[in-house]
């Protein structure tokens, strides 16, 4: 274990396996910090990808947070599949909680595929309310209602940054394929050669290769409480769910999939909202929707033209992408759209939005600042 003490009062340690913990060097702040922030990297990434973000959290909230940058899915381990990575992350989180008994709250901040891994992990970490009801010791005659938890902790923020929540199979969901239908279909057949099981999960082609009996693609299964994984119950448990999405120049993850929107729902955006956050161009608070609101909607098929369908009369006509939009819209979301169109690093938007590398600080720092400024502690 290697420990570092920064001049700005931020302490960090890096394990032999590569995990990174960040906390305040001031003893009183460190002892009072009861909010665990789990930061999850994307495909082929490492815990160092969130180094800047983790340090900014502790600088701004020194007496509130203890930050853990995950390491069990680093590099090529991130090709093993969303489910396998989710299991590893859940185990890693439980180990951190066991080592820090003073923790009472938990939040997740995840980049790219890490957002899907975090969604899987919280499904494994969900703990239903205990049956017994404890008497209130304050003597006011009230009783404390039992609450569900994430690994025994109160769930506060679930934040994803440029995460492909709708997968990568739909039209223009992987921008570097230029929206060419032939390229997109070809990619769905060969992606597993490059990104193995994770590629199958992203392109929703895992329904025909996984163990029998035949099951829907993993991302569809994650729309429900499935077997021993409480995916939606866990997601619903968080007080806030936030999506940061690139409106353009993200060649890896499209705007629709990272903001959980249909093509017709993508907002018109202009210049930045204010000088403090020059790259934030649109914000929206979306309330939870139920299935009854989807009787007649317009959907976009994979690479084909739009068509009007009735969910009630023709449920099979609804595309898989539409099912994912509907399923994830059953909980409320805060949506924050980001644009690096005027940035010299705009072509690296997928990494800049995370402030992945040192040279990106001047470009993406306001996004991290926005994230922390609105973070519930």
UniProtKB/TrEMBL annotation:
Pfam families given in the database record: DUF676
Q: Which Gene3D superfamilies match?
A: alpha/beta hydrolase
Cross-referenced PANTHER family, in alphabetical order?
Answer: LIPASE ROG1-RELATED-RELATED (PTHR12482), LIPASE YOR059C ISOFORM X1 (PTHR12482:SF14)
Q: What is this protein called?
A: Lipase
Q: Which organism is it from?
A: Gossypium arboreum (Tree cotton)
InterPro entries referenced in this protein's UniProt entry, alphabetically: AB_hydrolase_fold, DUF676_lipase-like, Lipase-like
